[in-house]
Amino acid sequence: MRLLIVEDERRLAAALARGLSAEGFVVDVAHDGLAGLRLAQERDYDLIVLDIMLPGLNGYRICARLRAEGDETPILVLTAKDGEFDEAEGLDTGADDYLTKPFSYVVLQARIRALLRRRNRARTAPVLRFGDLAVDQAARRVERAGTDIALTAREFAVLEHLALHAGQVVSKTDILAQVWDFAYDGDPNVVEVHVSALRRKLDTPFGRRTITTVRGAGYRLETDGGLLA
Ligand code: CA
């Protein structure tokens, strides 16, 4: 497993590289944005740990650039303080997860493992179909009635979790734990925000009701894709 760390705080970068190398990862380090982008473009990494505030080119731009080039390497973003990083914006640029500094090494390690597991699972996962809705886990793409639907990484993850439990009620807490990982202690309403966004993109334009709210219990993805009578 080859990891790239792009972090201008040299002591932090060195500490992370040391820890991850000791676990058997092959680790490359870049201390500025341009060098980081170049390495990411030239070599094939399993995961990139990417600081946001970087000299040369910031982390948002690196992330957006890689995704625009079709590079789907999982990216874990590091952000200096709460508020600096806009989750919606960051995840829209294609980052898969983020951590606010200071973070514990154990949490970082767990997030890296979770992202690698998710990617390995996704690589061999089948396309899930519900009526005219297709959720392609490997390509991270969603299509309805032949139309591509652009989702953020987080929206896709929420949809995927509901899709894997189609026909069953899934609680908000469960979605939070699965999609935001265990370290997330934010507002559970973030799930509602993402479900609303999904409905706006997947259902409204097509006259469907794919995701049903089950009062006091959670959400259910309808196995027929939510065809309205
Ligand atoms: Ca920095």
Structural account:
With 229 residues, the chain is α/β, with parallel strands linked by helices. It folds into 2 domains: 2-122, Rossmann fold (3-Layer(aba) Sandwich); 126-221, Arc Repressor Mutant, subunit A (Orthogonal Bundle). The protein has 8 helices and 12 strands. The chain has helices spanning 10-22, 33-42, 59-68, 87-92, 105-124, 153-164, 172-179, 189-203; strands at residues 2-6, 26-30, 47-51, 75-79, 97-100, 127-130, 133-136, 141-144, 147-149, 169-170, 211-214, 218-221. Helix 2 (33-42) runs parallel beside helix 3 (59-68) and helix 6 (153-164) packs across helix 8 (189-203). Calcium ion (CA) binds at residues 8-9, 51, 53-54.
The CATH C-level class name of the largest domain: Alpha Beta
Span from first to last CA?
Answer: 50 Å
Q: What spatial order of strands do you see in the largest sheet?
A: 2-1-3-4-5
For the sheet with most strands, the description reads:
5 strands, parallel
Number of domains: 2
Overall form: elongated
Order of helices and strands: EHEHEHEHEHEEEEHEHHEE
Assembly form of the protein: single chain
Essential attributes:
four-stranded antiparallel β-sheet, five-stranded parallel β-sheet, Rossmann fold, alpha/beta, binds calcium ion, 41% helix, single chain, 8 helices, 2 domains, Arc Repressor Mutant, subunit A, 229 residues
